[in-house]
Amino acid sequence: MLNLKQIYHARSRIAPHVTYTPLVPAPSLSNSNREVRLKLETTQPIGAFKLRGAINAVSQLNDNQKQKGVVCASTGNHGRAIAFAATRLGAKATVCMSSLVPDNKVQAIRALGADIRIHGNSQDEAQQLVEQLVAEHDMTEIPPFDHADVVCGQGTIALELFETWPQVDTILIGLSGGGLLGGIALAANSINPDVRIIGLSPQRGAAMAASLSAGKETEVEELPTLADSLGGGIGTHNRYTFDLVKTYMDDLILLTEQQIANAMRHLYYQEALVSEGAGAVGVAPLIEPALLDQLKQPLGRNVAIIVSGKNVDMRDFTSIMRGDIPK
């Protein structure tokens, strides 16, 4: 079982390497009955929250493990985080990715010094190569979400959130494998059991939603989505995040590609923020009130949105800002 104490320990380890990210008002999403603020993980050195978990995990490896190297499967931001953390902490890094990962994310990870391996057409197939490298070269795997140190690293976001805004009563968080939502939800509920946690996923390839519905880890077809960082499965032997999400998440909203695009546009045109699709999903129910009908209870008065990353292909981004949705 993971606990709040472990998340505080993670905070001490990662503090020299990560940004204490700002929590900014969102006037375009707020009204007389509700204040909305944005937690800008886009300001991390790699442009996404994943750095927290990666630093926490790599910092606890011994010299022999660092020399043999760390390896992971990634849709982009986790690989970027592992590459950054390995360079900062003196380890070798290999990142395995599927052919669906956008080229801008591949090149960004390579630029940070990681060895890149492209394998298969899904996150699950990329994971097969990770397991092969671990078996053959005794490398240390640091998975994107289902890892104690990764979950605790992501949970440090909640510590900052409550320090900055103790009145927060609702947190909107993108949901894929559950490392971000699970870590934040664990910390948030340990601090304030009444806080509501709302997850948001794309309709395309919502593996956690399918798993929660089935009551067990379930594989789904991985499909291209504007929220590509929310792609991939949750693993067939999930140890941490499935139970964390099942225990602490109050509601889940599934979004169409159009709704994700609308959220990205809103952040850009109304709040002057560039966000990838996965980073913008929390905005969707606030600009399309019909989505709120899916919730068991109305939103609270003090709502925080985790804007998780900004690493979007700018060609796609400018197309989306013009009103198109890339296929």
What key attributes describe this structure?
alpha/beta; Rossmann fold; six-stranded mixed β-sheet; four-stranded parallel β-sheet; 10 strands; 43% helix
What does this protein look like?
Helices cover 43% and strands 14% of the residues. It is built from 14 helices and ten strands.
Quick synopsis:
Helices cover 43% and strands 14% of the residues.
SSE order and pairing:
Elements: H1 4-14, E1 23-25, E2 35-40, H2 51-58, H3 63-68, E3 70-73, H4 77-89, E4 93-97, H5 103-111, E5 115-118, H6 123-137, E6 140-141, H7 148-164, E7 170-174, H8 179-191, E8 196-202, H9 207-214, H10 241-248, E9 251-255, H11 257-271, H12 277-280, H13 284-287, E10 302-307, H14 314-321
Helix pairs in contact: 1-2, 1-7, 2-4, 2-7, 4-5, 7-8, 8-10
Q: Residue share in helices?
A: 40-55%
What value does the Rg take, in angstroms? 18 Å
Summarize the biggest pleated sheet.
6 strands, mixed
- Name the helix and strand elements from N-terminus to C-terminus, one letter apiece: HEEHHEHEHEHEHEHEHHEHHHEH
Strand order of the largest sheet: 1-2-10-7-8-9
Shape: globular
Q: Output the number of helix runs.
A: 14
Average pLDDT number: 94
Low-confidence stretches: none
Separation of the first and last Cα atoms: 41 Å
